[in-house]
Amino acid sequence: MNFSELERIRVEKIERMRARGIEPYPTRAEVSHTTVQAIQLYEQAESAGSSDPVQVSVGGRLRAIRTMGKVTFAHIEDGWGRLQLFFRVNELGEAEMERFRDDFDLGDFIQASGVMFRTRSGEITLHVHAFKMLSKAITPLPAAKDEVVDGKVIRHAALTDPETRYRQRYADLAVNPEVREVFRIRARAVKALRDYLDNMGFLEVETPILQPIYGGAAARPFVTYHNQLKQNLYLRISFELYLKRLLVGMLDRVYEIGRDFRNEGVSYKHNPEFTQLEFYMAYADYLQVMEITEQMVAYVAQQVLGTTTITYEGHTIDLTPPWRRLELRQGILETTGIDIDQHPTAESLAEAMRAKGMQPKPGYSRGKLIDSLLGDYLEPTLIQPTFLYNYPRDISPLAKSMPGNPLITERFEGYIGGMELCNAFTELNDPLDQEQRFLEMGRDYNADDEERHPMDEDYLRAMSYGMPPCGGFGMGIDRLVMLLADRHTIREVILFPHLREEDRPGEKKEE
Fold first, then answer.
1. What is the 3-state secondary structure (H, E, C) of 448-481?
2. What are the pLDDT digits (tens) for 56-105?
3. Distance of CA 398 to CAs 144, 199, 213, 292, 472, Å?
């Protein structure tokens, strides 16, 4: 390791500690309470009028040190909160006070034991009778100094650079408590989703991540190779086709929460590796799934935040059901002035778009042109929860067509905060129709088009045994957390987001 001057000083401290027989990375810690538990324990004794000493042993990272003559105040922080420590020469002696000043730096993990009390300023504090090093920090944290002024924590040199925060998430978490809270929100949201679905009688299952045929979504997959089987495999882009196989097998309500992988561009709402919830429910249609969706998202918000009203990008958003329902055709007409029903071909629709000053991409199918109108013009306007429904058949290869209108499918997408949150269908369960859809997708798209959907013979075989009518649903967990935590990029809610390769000093990049 190449150490800076500050790091070399800390390494020398490690060597001096070991020379004195003190291990800076001991095997054991004797921590009896978290910082929050220690404070609560003292408050309970105080409320009960008890005069018995409240003795605790706590551990945490040193966040501030203030020496004033024969006393030293410090603050430690653990994963739950922070606590003030009080060191005094009367109890510890000159040698121990000197050891603390010489050996300990901001960022070190310390164990401190003693008696809780309240200072004259009213802060609950641990009067330290013994302490030891738990882990010596060699590298100073990017925001190593906190100061308490009038009872408020003032953080100096905060870590705010996004590039550093995402690449060194460990440092980001260590110095930014609000970032730790984002991932607690994420964990609570996943738990609430599970609770909701479990209470509805759904069974949580696991399906393959490595798949011989990818499918269930319109996306380009990651390809890998199995050496023993001499076989190309794909990281899954969706759980859909495997979960629907389980409906054939008489598991009527199933869901999975797990990772999907899509070899596509990155943006504020896209990461190549992301977390998805999908569920499939026999004997349901997309209208029933709409009701479940709005109830489930509201339930999660209530469980996680204690309210169904959230703030996202400055907007106050009410998740309380029922959500707005808007037919896709009507939404596009309102935002662009184009009635897609009046343009039954790709050529006609492209001409109408050009007449409005738009620049449709050459070679796009009618469905993909409609999708671009949605993404570019309608989606940004959908701030309050909205279900867009009834989508073109050629961009919904797994959805059932509406009775009497084979070109429109029973599909909806849910939008909140100007972005898509979820996608759902009345699922296609006719194997002959499904085979024809696969053939059309293979014929109408180029081999390298990410919208191309491969033929899955085994899935068709499963369907031929009989699949019950069903409703299916998929939602990005990362986007849900973005909404709940009021974070404006997906990288803020993924612990270790994918980034471009880091530039190395002196290394010239290829053009």
1. CCCCCCCCCHHHHHHHHCCCCCEEEEEEEHHHHH
2. 999 999 999 999 999 999 999 999 999 999 999 999 999 999 999 999 99
3. 53, 28, 16, 20, 10
Reply yes or no on whether the pLDDT at 21 is more than 90: yes
| Band of pLDDT at residue 356, cut at 50, 70 and 90 | very high
Summarize the chain as % helix, strand, coil (round to 5). 35, 30, 35
Determine what percent of the chain is predicted with pLDDT higher than 70: 93
In whole angstroms, give the CA distance from residue 429 to residue 376.
32
Number of folded domains that form the chain:
2
Residues 152 and 192 reside in one and the same domain: no
Over the Cα atoms of the chain, what is R_g?
29
d(CA 184, CA 470): 34
**407-451 per-position pLDDT tens digit:** 899 999 999 999 999 999 999 999 999 999 888 766 544 555 555
Q: With beta carbons less than 8 A apart as the criterion, state whether 254 and 473 touch.
A: no
What's the rounded Cα separation, in Å, for the pair 372 and 364? 10
**pLDDT per residue as tens digits for the range 33-68:** 999 999 999 999 999 999 999 999 999 999 999 999
What is the Cα–Cα distance from 57 to 130, expressed in whole angstroms?
9
On whether residue 505 sits in a domain, the answer given is no
Is residue 413 annotated as involved in ligand binding? yes
**Structure tokens belonging to residue 221:** 């997959």
CA 241 – CA 221 distance, rounded (Å): 15
d(CA 36, CA 249): 49
**Which structural domain, as residue segments, surrounds residue 141?**
5-158
Q: Residue 505 pLDDT > 60, yes or no?
A: no
The 10 Å Cβ neighbour count of residue 283 is 12
Which residues, 6+ apart, have CB-to-CB distance to 311 below 8 Å? 317, 486
Residue 511 annotated in ligand binding:
no
Domain membership flag for residue 171: no
Backbone angles phi, psi at 472, to 5 degrees: -125, 155
pLDDT, position 442: 64
For residues 279 and 145, membership in a common domain is answered with: no
The phi, psi pair for 404, rounded to 5°, reads 85, -5
d(CA 390, CA 402): 8
Distance CA 373, CA 338 (A): 9
Q: How far apart are CA 397 and CA 387, in angstroms?
A: 20
Q: Which two tokens stand for residue 510?
A: 């290829």
Question: What is the band of 152 on the pLDDT scale with cuts at 50, 70, 90?
Answer: low
Q: How far apart are CA 278 and CA 204, in angstroms?
A: 10
Q: Based on the domain organization, do 68 and 153 belong to the same domain?
A: yes
